[in-house]
Amino acid sequence: QAATVTTVTLAKSTARQDTPLYVIKSGKPGPVVMIVGGMHGNEKSGPKAADKIKNIRPKKGTLLVLPRANIVAVKEGTRTSPGVGDMNRTFPRTKNGKCTKNTSQSIWDAIKKYDVDYLIDLHEGYNYHKIQPSSYGQTLIYYPISGAKTVGQVIIKELNKGIGSPSKHFTLVKYPYPGTLARAAAQHLGVIAFTMETCRKSAESIRINNGVKATNTLLKHLGML
Question: In degrees, to the nearest 5, what angle opens at C-alpha 128 toward C-alphas 121 and 160?
Answer without folding.
Answer: 70
